[in-house]
Design goal:
This protein starts with a helix and ends with a helix. The longest helix has 25 residues. It is built from ten helices and four strands; from the N terminus they run ααβααβααααβαβα.
Length: about 240
């Protein structure tokens, strides 16, 4: 399929054919492709939990309110945000960037570029992603409000704002995964109806981790998997050429 065909093929499938199983390795490969999704500052504050064990699948389906999209699924993938890993990930990206600059930048520019990355990933990013009962976020908001009087500046820097950034980034990976699955001829359904506390407990996630999305996977059941025609608001209502 070409891209248009893949996007048209992808639908939110509510019932899967339980007699048709999907290849675990192909799903894993689609998750590898999901890591190619764009993400804020290349921080990659996500984790993917690929559920294949029948017992855990059943427990997870119960935590997802026993919807048919999970109770009939072949496999389930849970997308998790890990803002609590920001220091580890920023250190990883910084080390990569230093090597990247040394390998690919002109020698006369390397020193400045490395210093810029050290400032960004060593100081600014840890300051932006730190959370402490909203206090650090308030300090960031006050600073950006003062600086914003004199020049344009990013203003969405509160602790809640940064949480939104992390979830947007993870959602991009989830969408990339679903497109990759459609390209394999596999079906998915992104779910927001789930008990996040129970899902976290089942996956043994740390307190600061958050569930971004639960995506069921399988092959659609004929005449039941899709609920009729696709509905979209007229393009003219959402498209604005300026």
């Amino acid at each position: 399929m070409n891209l248009k065909e893949v996007l048209n093929y992808r639908r939110s499938v509510r019932t899967y054919d339980q007699e048709k199983q999907i290849d675990t390795e192909k799903v894993k490969h689609c998750l590898e492709l999901a890591t190619l999704a764009p993400n804020s500052s290349n921080m990659q504050l996500w984790e993917f939990y690929h559920i294949t064990q029948p017992e855990l699948m059943a427990a997870l389906s119960k935590a997802c309110l026993d919807q048919t999209a999970t109770s009939t699924a072949s496999q389930i993938v849970v997308f998790v945000t890990r803002q609590d890993l920001h220091r580890k990930r920023s250190k990883f990206v910084l080390e990569f960037e230093i090597g990247n600059i040394q390998r690919n930048s002109p020698k006369e520019r390397q020193e400045k570029r490395i210093k810029d990355r050290e400032l960004y990933y060593g100081k600014l990013i840890p300051f932006l992603y730190t959370r402490f009962f909203g206090i650090v976020g308030l300090i960031r908001v006050l600073i950006t409000s003062a600086v914003g009087i004199f020049r344009p500046i990013v203003r969405q820097v509160s602790e809640n704002d940064m949480r939104v950034v992390v979830h947007k980034t993870c959602a991009l990976a989830a969408q990339t995964f679903m497109i990759a699955m459609a390209n394999e001829g596999y079906d998915t359904c992104p779910l927001e109806g789930f008990d996040s506390k129970r899902v976290k407990k089942l996956l043994n996630l740390p307190y600061r981790a958050e569930i971004n999305m639960v995506i069921s996977c399988g092959i659609r059941k004929d005449n039941e998997g899709i609920w009729g025609e696709r509905c979209r608001v007229p393009f003219e209502e959402v498209y604005h050429k300026i």
